[in-house]
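In this section we walk through a basic example: taking a raw amino acid sequence and producing a predicted 3D structure, encoded as C-alpha cells. The instruction is simple. Fold the sequence below.
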Amino acid sequence: MRFEFVKMQGCGNDYIYFNCLKAPFPNPEINAVKLSDRHFGIGGDGIILIERSDKADAFMRLYNADGSAARMCGNGVRSVARYLRDAELLADPLQAKIDTPCGVKIITFEDDNITVNMGKPSFEHDDIPMRIPFEMRHGNQNTIIADGEVYYFVGVSMGNPHAVVFVYDPYSLDLSKIGPIFEKHDYFPDSVNAEFVRVLTPNNVTMRVWERGSGETLACGTGACAAAVAAAKIGYCDVDKGVTVHLRGGDLFIRTINGEVFMTGTAEKVFEGVIDIG
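The resulting C-alpha cell sequence is shown next.
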C-alpha cells in the first residue's frame, strides 16, 4: 500500500508522521523499525500516527525507532499540532487539543512558537515507575553505577519515565556506554530516558539525552521538562520564572504555572513524500 508521509522535527527530534484520520496504519511496530532506519528507510527517531479522537482534534500514537510504543513526546505533540494547523484540520486555528496515552494536551500558537501544557510532573516512585533500594536513596536524589562510575539522579515522570543526572560536562560523557545502562537498569521496570544536565544559571541549563528505544537524540521535550523540574526540586533553578533548556538540536523554554509544566518551542516540516508499505 502507498502512504503519504510528512517528516517533521522539533529541536532536531525528528519523526515520520502519517495521517491516519481516515485509514489505519499497518504493523506499526515492524514498520517503525524499517522506516526509522537512516540508511534504508526514511530516517527518524520513530513514527507518529495521527488518528481520530472523539474528545480532541486528533489522537497521537508514537512508536520509537526500535518499534516500542511510547506514551508521550513533547516535540512530537507540537509537530502534530503544527501539522493539523497547516492542514486546516483544527476547530480553532489558535489552539489544538491532542489526545495522547497520557491524556489530552492543550497546545497554543503564537507566531512560530508552540506552547504545550504538559501537565504536572510526578516524583513518586510508583508513577515513574522506579524501584530503588533504600540504601541507594539520598534525599531528593538516588544513586546508580554506570560504566564504573557512581551517578546521582532525580527520578521524575512527565508521562514518560526520566532519570535526570546533574554533571559538570554532559559532552564529555560516553553516552553510548552510559545511556543503555540507565535505560535497561533493573531500577526501571519500564526502562527509562536519561538526561545528563549541566546547570549554567538559575534559568539556563544544557543537556544531552538518551531516549529509551531511540538512543541519543538531538532533543527530548518531556526530558527537557523533567530536567527543569528536577533542577528546581533540588534548588538549582527557578522554573516558576522559566528555564531555557539548551539541547543539541535547539532550545526549549520550560515554565511552571500552578504546578503544571508548560513547554514552548518550534516545530517544522522537513519534507513530505509517498512510500510503499507492506
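Looking at the output, two observations stand out. The first helix runs from residue 28 to 36. The chain has four helices and 19 strands. In the next section we compare this with other chains.
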